[in-house]
Specification:
This protein is an alpha+beta fold. It is about 35% helix and about 20% strand. A hairpin with a 2-residue loop joins β4 (about 50-55) and β5 (about 60).
């Protein structure tokens, strides 16, 4: 069989082998290739990605040049940025939108393991139905683990904390799930405690490492944009790995988390050092 130029032979079948170095892409092609937004493409261009301006609002890119640029970014060491993990702490009731102060994970740990909410938590667990819900909303202090706010509204976020809280309700075995999450091999637990009702868990982890790695390849706009994607990915992992269903409200940065009493809460040892 005569070999044709531009084709390769595999198992006696002629398969096309295109010369990708001659492939030209427009911005839409590049967005699909790199799974990113047009804004990210513009940032990559500003950082040196080769492009060819053929019109005022139209650019073309060479496939091989783009891939070489991305590969060079992968080989560069990740710049370790200092991310501040403070978040807002609010006094009860839940309708309060003005934060009382900034909290750290260590502050939250001492609050939860101390006796501040001991009587409140004990009384809540004696209630049922509507009385249980009303009491929790009016008696418990709370925080927004994912951010520091001037007021508890999406538009008033001052800074993302790089923390994400996952909420698990009505677990059949709280203690077994506690151990699973605490010892997860992929996501180091930053803070883990039992819910006010006692039948659920609050699992706080950091998205800092994943954000920095992704930012190395594609300069995402900020942590706020990455938060929903990270939450969705981890939720999918938890469902497939442990069969755990996450409360979807965790995707909202402004989401409030009640602070109960749990003397056996866990905090990452590195935070205590």
């Amino acid at each position: 069989m005569r070999k044709l130029k531009g084709y390769v032979k595999k198992d006696d079948v002629e398969l096309p082998h295109p010369d990708l170095s001659k492939v030209w892409l427009d911005s839409s092609d590049l967005m699909r290739l790199l799974h990113c937004s047009l804004r990210t493409i513009n940032k990559l261009r500003a950082q040196g990605m080769p492009y060819y301006k053929v019109h005022t609002h139209y650019c073309l890119y060479k496939f091989d040049e783009v891939m070489e640029f991305i590969e060079n970014r992968r080989q560069k060491p990740i710049e370790r940025k200092t991310m501040i993990n403070d978040f807002s702490y609010f006094r009860a009731p839940i309708t309060n939108t003005v934060p009382h102060s900034a909290f750290s994970l260590l502050d939250a740990y001492h609050y939860i393991t101390g006796g501040i909410a001991k009587e409140t938590t004990a009384h809540l667990r004696t209630l049922t139905g509507k009385a249980h819900s009303i009491y929790k909303q009016n008696a418990f202090d709370f925080c927004t683990f994912s951010g520091l706010f001037s007021t508890r509204r999406n538009g008033d976020l001052l800074r993302h904390s790089s923390l994400v809280c996952f909420d698990f309700d009505h677990l059949p075995d709280v203690e077994a799930t506690f151990e699973l999450l605490k010892n997860d091999k992929y996501f180091p637990t930053m803070l883990l405690f039992r819910s006010p009702s006692g039948d659920g868990l609050k699992w706080v982890i950091s998205m800092e490492r994943q954000f920095l790695c992704r930012e190395k390849f594609f300069p995402l706009e900020n942590q706020v944009d990455y938060h929903p994607s990270f939450f969705k990915s981890v939720s999918y992992y938890l469902l497939n790995e442990y069969g755990l269903v996450t409360d979807k409200s965790g995707k909202d940065i402004v989401r409030a988390c009640f602070l109960p009493h749990d003397p056996n809460a866990y905090i990452n040892e590195k935070i205590l050092q």
